[in-house]
Write a structure and sequence with these properties.
This protein has 24 helices and 14 strands. It has three domains: 122 residues, Enzyme I, Chain A, domain 2 (Orthogonal Bundle), CATH 1.10.274; 101 residues, Phosphohistidine domain (Glucose Oxidase, domain 1), CATH 3.50.30; 316 residues, Phosphoenolpyruvate-binding domains (TIM Barrel). β2, α6 and β3 form a beta-alpha-beta unit. It has an eight-stranded parallel β-barrel with strand order 7-8-9-10-11-12-13-14, surrounded by five helices. Strands 4-3-2-1-5-6 form a six-stranded mixed sheet, covered by helices on one side. The relative contact order is 0.08. The chain is an alpha/beta fold. The site of magnesium ion has 5 residues, from α19.
Length: 571
């Protein structure tokens, strides 16, 4: 429950106002004040960042300070105010537009890269002039529901600290990265399928019922009272699910154990419960370290983070995935590089192999932290064996360096690959010879197989997890893994879907890794499944020809298991 704050792609609605000659001075003063305040704020932020993450990390603010105090630019705005006799914010926005147009056309990459910083600075200056200044670093004054087209994971993480209690977006969905982060933070959200921005203005009271997917605009007193009660009951639920679980024993009726793992984006709230319940980390999305701060943590900082989590979970395994940046998790840093088709662009291992220093420092940090013996390294977005070979070469080189420097690490550290691009699934037999484990990222595998953007609600009807083609690719990967004697995990959202559990168990998947709050329910579910029946069920499903038929089979099996009906759920 909160007040809407509508964030548009063009965040500010600036109107042109003519002003009398006598007010020109006044407008210039408003401009000067706003830019001066911005400079001061940036300096304070810079100093804080330097204390928290060191001088090198704080450098990004230097560029912004320089932009905010650029006299030449301010002079052009002032001339516009005086010559055209217009309000400061309009003159500012017009001059800004000209500057950005010029930079966008420039051949100089450095100049083009400045656009992002210029936008960040100008948003602050404009918000000060327009009096939309409540979103300071202490957050919004009141519980706020952010309304917009889509937000990056980094924006979500930053806003979550600022009294944002809900998200309402036109794009995205549960499998989008925005969706994953919002869920991992336990924030209610409704996404897609409605054009929220047009119906809502900033300040409108809104309730989001994330369980039902309902959005109530301008709720009456009765509804508010009702929802306050519901909220009080639900608020602590995600953590309570784990807190209340006494044990997690995912063993099938016939005694076959299935491993469970947790997907973690942000370390912290779930750790102790997971450890108590004996569940390791099946997927640690390290790119969230970057999103949280918008700077890349250096080797030392990463080493501390990785070794802390490994020691905490020891002897339970901790699977660290190398940075998966790009695609719909564009970082604001990489966002400077515009791509027409980012999901098919510079993402995951492709970024890592080009930005070698970044990759090297991450791998070094992971290897050093592996001395505790329970770390596994996982590589995302691999589409070709050459990427694994190049990564392995780098890993071997780092290992030699560490040996020379007598720094301890796990000599047998398992290296795995995400199977999330169809080409990887199709060549899984060969990839399996190169690595120690597979982790099937179904979120992306569905997106790339079905050619349906995981964040675009307009094509969500094509994003079919139960499509026979997706199942075939999963089966290929599982068979190839087992033929080569390596284990296979499912770590996409499908892993936590009870309807799909019998199929995965039937295929012989070794581990399911999911959002921690789903673990107790899935473990309980597994204990009702007979893995021998599941195997027969999986072979039958593999012969089905349409999504509808597969979904029906999943649903029927689910109903049988749920009702514990006598007889078999395999028909
Ligand atoms: C996936 O693609 O299924 C996956 C687990 O990775 P991510 O959601 O981080 O892309
Ligand atoms: Mg993925």
């Amino acid at each position: 429950m909160g007040e809407a704050q509508v964030i548009r792609d063009h965040a500010f609605h600036v109107v042109r106002r003519s002003i009398p000659a006598g007010r020109v001075k006044n407008e210039i003063a408003r401009l000067r004040n706003a830019s001066q305040t911005t400079v001061e704020e940036l300096r304070t932020t810079r100093n804080k960042a330097a204390r928290a993450i060191g001088d090198s990390g704080a450098n990004i603010f230097d560029a912004q300070i320089m932009i905010a105090s650029d006299e030449e630019f301010l002079e052009s705005v002032i001339q516009r105010i005086s010559k055209e006799r217009i309000n400061a914010e309009y003159a500012y926005q017009e001059t800004l537009g000209d500057t950005i147009d010029r930079l966008e056309k420039s051949d100089d990459l450095y100049l083009r890269q400045m656009i992002h910083d210029i936008r960040a600075v100008s948003e602050r200056v404009l918000s000060l002039m327009l009096g939309v200044g409540q979103d300071d670093e202490n957050g919004f004054n009141r519980p706020t529901i952010l309304v917009g087209r889509i937000f990056s994971p980094g924006q979500v993480m930053a806003y979550a600290k600022r009294n944002v209690v809900g998200f309402l977006t036109e794009e995205g969905g549960p499998a989008s990265h925005m969706g994953l982060v919002i869920r991992s933070l336990g924030i209610p959200a409704a996404m897609g399928d409605f054009s929220v921005g047009e119906q809502l203005t900033t300040g409108t009271p809104v309730i989001i019922d994330g369980n039902k997917g309902d959005v109530i605009i301008n709720p009456d007193l009765e509804t508010r009272r009702n929802y306050r009660r519901i909220r009080a009951q639900k608020q602590s639920q995600p953590l309570n699910v784990l807190r209340q679980a006494r044990s997690i024993t995912p063993v099938c009726v016939d005694g076959r154990p299935i491993k469970l793992g947790a997907n973690l984006e942000i370390p912290g709230p779930f750790d102790d419960h997971l450890i108590r319940l004996g569940v390791g980390v099946g997927l640690y999305r390290t790119e969230f370290l970057y999103f949280a701060k918008q700077v890349f943590p250096d080797e030392e900082e990463q080493y501390l983070i990785y070794s802390r989590i490994a020691e905490k979970f020891h002897p339970l395994p901790v699977t660290l995935r190398t940075f998966d940046l790009g695609g719909d998790k564009y970082s604001d840093h990489l966002g400077k590089i515009r791509e027409d088709n980012p999901a098919l662009g510079w993402r995951g291992i492709r970024v890592a192999l080009d930005a070698t220093e970044l990759f090297r420092s991450q791998l070094r940090a992971m290897l050093r932290a592996s001395a505790s013996g329970n770390i596994r390294i996982l590589m995302p977005m691999v589409s070709d064996a050459s990427e694994i070979i190049a990564s392995m070469k780098l890993i071997e080189k780092i290992k030699r360096e560490l040996r020379r420097s007598k720094i301890q690490f796990d000599e047998d550290i398992p290296i795995g690959v995400m199977i999330e691009v169809p080409s990887a699934a199709l060549s899984a037999d060969y990839l399996a010879e190169l690595v120690d484990f597979f982790s099937i990222g179904t979120n992306d595998l569905v997106q790339y197989t079905m050619a349906a953007d995981r964040s675009n609600h307009r094509v969500s009807k094509y994003y079919n997890s139960a499509h026979p083609s997706v199942l075939k690719l999963i089966q290929m990967a599982v068979l190839a893994a087992h033929d080569n004697g390596i284990p296979v995990t499912i770590c996409g959202e499908m892993a936590g879907n009870k309807e799909m559990a019998p199929f995965f168990i039937g295929l012989g998947v070794d581990e399911l890794s999911m959002n921690p709050t789903l673990l107790p329910g899935v473990a309980d579910w597994i204990s009702r499944i007979n893995s021998i029946e599941a195997k027969r069920f999986a072979s039958r499903v593999m012969r089905l020809t349409t999504t509808e038929k597969v979904s029906r089979a999943f649903r029927e099996a689910y109903d049988y298991i749920k009702q514990q009906k006598k007889g078999s759920w395999i028909r």
